[in-house]
Amino acid sequence: MSILVIGIMLFALLWIKLTPGLEAKDVRIMIRDSGLLIYGHRRSFKAIKRAAVDRHTPKIAMMGGGILGVGLFSTWK
């Protein structure tokens, strides 16, 4: 089970890193253009990158992949 979950988590992380349009620069532009405010941070590209993109996106992708892997394993029996 753990090999399956870890494999899907790594696949989710690679998906985020290698898919065009999901890179840090593109996500920063989407956040800025949508008007989303990140409280406690300025609206500059550097602040958005540090606050949201670099810090949270890989963690959320791996957590989602782990949940998907556990769900897949639980229905596989």
Overview of this protein structure:
There is one protein chain. The chain has three helices and no strands. By secondary structure, the protein is an all-alpha fold. It has one domain. The longest helix is centred in the C-terminal third of the chain and has 32 residues, at 45-76. It starts with a helix and ends with a helix.
Q: What fraction of residues sit in β-strands?
A: under 5%
Cα distance spanning the termini: 11 Å
**Largest sheet descriptor:** none
Radius of gyration over C-alpha positions, nearest whole angstrom: 15 Å
Outline the low-pLDDT stretches. Answer: none
Question: What's this, in brief?
Answer:
The chain is an all-alpha fold and 77 residues long.
Write the layout of secondary structure elements.
Elements: H1 2-18, H2 24-34, H3 45-76
List keywords for this structure.
single chain; 77 residues; mainly alpha
